[in-house]
Amino acid sequence: MASAQLFLAAALAFIAAVDGAAPTAADVTKLRLSSGASMPVVGLGTWQVTQDQELEAALDAALAAGYRHIDTATIYRNEHLIGKVISRWLKEGRVKREDLFITTKLPVFGMRPADVPDFLNQSLAKLQLDYVDMYLIHMPFAVKREAYEDGRISADGTDTTTDHLAIWKAMEAEQKAGRARSLGVSNFNESQVEHLIKNAAVPPANLQIELHLYHQQKAIVDFCKKNNVAVTAYSPLGSPGSKWLSLISGKELPDLLSLPDVVEIAARHNKTAAQVVLRHTVQRGIIVIPKSSNPGRIQQNIDIFDFTLSDSEMAKLDALDKGLEGKLFDMKFIGGSERHPEYPWTALL
């Protein structure tokens, strides 16, 4: 079965190297998606990086380190910078387009069927690409298009007319046209994903969700495995750069990299705490997109294929899960999302 092969490959989480040599960053394991595409299990997250020089330097460092999966979104406001770097690497012959896996997302203010080709066109123009490898619906809820202006969404902008199936049908048309090779969703809950699986002509190939040691999302990960939907973890290190979140929510950001169990396991393997945390997630069969603009950490974050966590180490890290209590991002700051009928985390209301 395709799903069994998909998650068996992820559970192994490394590529057997020629002549027994340790795998390098360029050998990053890929998962075979239900769409037929292959998605690298480690990608570079780019949320909250909009400074030109910072992002360009990070992308150059990532591509040089062997990253071929880059994650962005319309709402990140950095697609044009990513396009600039990718175009340069392609023109210089340093990478081939078919070796790259570029993900972007339909914004929350573009949640009408007619918006799909418009926003995908805008993303492709900024990325300087003919197609993206993955196009995701960024949020299950929606705000009116006019509610967004210059990076801000008005608090009263909620659009309750959201129809996931109608939007998805427009997404399918873009896949058929070859402008989005694979389709998926982000921040959807299990019932929302299941609704698409049962009713869409093309099932979602990927679900991107907040996932880290304190919020391991075990139930929806198991559901996705059973239904051949690959899972991508955003904020896999606990989003240590999101200091603003504490100001909005009053919730203290976790320091996952200083947890005693993580530090102990890292020392045992002569690895960094971040490498252990990422390895734990990848070893569960989950794609990770850690964000960093530090070249050293960018390199470290992809060098997780030359060691394996034991069953007891995995169990020790599994036990750190706090469930919904460990969730960092409730998205209530987006245009009154908690009042939307498709708000996905009703237990938080």
Poorly predicted runs are: 1-24
| Structural class computed from helices and strand pairing | alpha/beta
Helix percentage:
25-40%
User: Radius of gyration, rounded?
Assistant: 19 Å
Number of DSSP-assigned strands: 12
Order of neighbouring strands in the sheet with most strands: 3-4-5-6-9-10-11-12
User: Overall 3D geometry?
Assistant: globular
Main pleated-sheet profile: 8 strands, parallel
Mean pLDDT: 90
Question: Gap between N and C termini, in Å?
Answer: 39 Å
Query: How many helices does DSSP assign?
Result: 12
> How much strand content do the residues show?
5-15%
Note down, in words, how this protein is organized.
The protein is an alpha/beta fold and 349 residues long. Helix content is 36%, strand content 13%. It is built from 12 helices and 12 strands. The chain has helices at residues 2-12, 52-65, 79-91, 115-127, 164-176, 190-199, 218-226, 243-249, 260-269, 273-283, 295-302, 311-318; strands at residues 30-32, 38-40, 44-45, 69-71, 101-106, 132-137, 148-149, 152-153, 180-186, 206-210, 230-234, 287-288. The strands form 3 sheets. It has an 8-stranded parallel sheet with strand order 3-4-5-6-9-10-11-12. Strands 1-2 form a two-stranded antiparallel ribbon. Strand 9, helix 6 (190-199) and strand 10 form a beta-alpha-beta unit. The longest helix is centred in the N-terminal third of the chain and has 14 residues, at 52-65. The chain is globular and about 55 Å long. It starts with a helix and ends in a 31-residue tail after the last helix. This is NADP-dependent oxidoreductase domain-containing protein. GO terms for molecular function: oxidoreductase activity. Residues 1-20 form the signal peptide. Residues 42-321 form the NADP-dependent oxidoreductase domain.
